[in-house]
Amino acid sequence: MDFKRAFRVWQRNATVYKKLYRSSLTLNFFEPMLYLIALGYGLGGFIKEINGMTYIEFIAPGIIMSSAMFAACYECTYGTYVRMVYQKTFDAILATPITFNELILGELLWGATKSLIYGTVIILVISLFGLVKSSYVVFLIPLILMCGLIFASLSLIATAIVPGIDSFNYFYTLILTPLFLFSGIFFPLEDMPEIVIKLSQANPLMHLVNISRAFCYGKIPYSFIYDLIVIVIYLFVLAPFPFILLKKRYVL
Amino acid sequence: MDVVVGKNLTKYYKKFKALDSANFEIKEGECFGFLGPNGAGKTTIMGMIYGFITLSEGEIKIFGIKIDEKTLPKLKRRIGVIPQDNNLDPDLNVLENLIVYARYFDISKNEAIRRAKELLKFVKLEEWSKINVRKLSGGMQRKLIFARGLINDPDIIILDEPTTGLDPRSRRQIWDKIEVLKHSGKTLILTTHYMEEAEKLCDRLAIMDKGKILIIDTPQNLSIKFGGNLEHVYLNMTEG
Q1: Which keywords does UniProt give here (chain A) (predicted)?
Q2: Residue B175 falls within a domain, yes or no?
Q3: Is the pTM of this model over 0.90?
Q4: Which of A40, A145, B119, B239 has its CB 3.0 to 4.6 Å from that of A56, i.e. a possible disulfide?
């Protein structure tokens, strides 16, 4: 596998994105802002505080990670699927020296890059709201990248197995929405029933949110090492599957 | 010298045998055509030559090198593919489509722009270079795909049904361009189901039907051997 050739695929996606980002950046950015304002201020008015934080302070670090997660997911489900099936961009690329694995690596890295873009923009915005209290927040950048790689892998796996583009609804409704809601972004999971706590341990987004919250406010517990280990395990365990499964679907 | 050699090429899709021990040798500088009805296995052979479709049996050698995952990227630097589907980047304009494609071959930006402009002139699209490809007519899109396949200055050019679905004028323009390439000494591999196209362009022809190569010869010899014109040969050899 040649990284430079994978980078060419990344570059192609970046070139197209540069032409279109104005419309998509504002749109993708609108949704997290809605959550932040509607829940942070709206619902937050009824909630005194959680673990010594106002409600908007409590949810803001989680919104960074969920935005990063959804950015990679949209890119590597709908985006990749359109390139693979409708636009036949994969066909065009594979007629050149770029190999299939390099093509998929390019897609994966591009998905992670989208996470990085949207995650970083959200950090900037919540900083403007005064919700970032620690300069440790810069360490979130590599974390966002890991978040991007995990969810780009997961999404490419979905892209490899869906029978058609409409089937992504199942992926979003049955997998991503539960991960999003039970990640500890909106309420502490400690007070949930035992079973929810246990299940949430398997949720990579929960571990990402834990670290994000710790770094936004500069109060870093040792348990962050445990969160980080789980994230790294997810990263490596998921990584081979997009390559294997997409090849199975695509190469005749 | 034989630049492309296919030996015993066989392809199964599940149990269906789409290609059945095809053998051929394509010589340097010739225009070699695969002629046959839809589903004869032409596109399967093309896909095998550029590594898109795996072989169930047999082997392909290009410039004497057996193609596999390791040798393919290097060999593909010397191959230009003009596919039958439109797979241009719909969000980019004409020039950008060529430049993005040139990057896959590690062609530097300045060189890519130079070649792109030259090729756009060649296919008479130079005035459209800033236009989004969605706005081009079908014939113009096909010309752009044609130009794109030449961006790496390939030694072997694969033309997969280059004029299918084109109006007569656009078809003639594409034929003229293919003639120019022939005279420049490139090796051309062409698939078609048009007799007229095969007869006009190809030095040698493989007639295919149901996954098999039935015969390989020059269009003239085929006409002489079987009496009548090429259409007569084709219709007699292939089943409807």
Answers
A1: Cell membrane, Membrane, Transmembrane, Transmembrane helix, Transport
A2: no
A3: yes
A4: A40
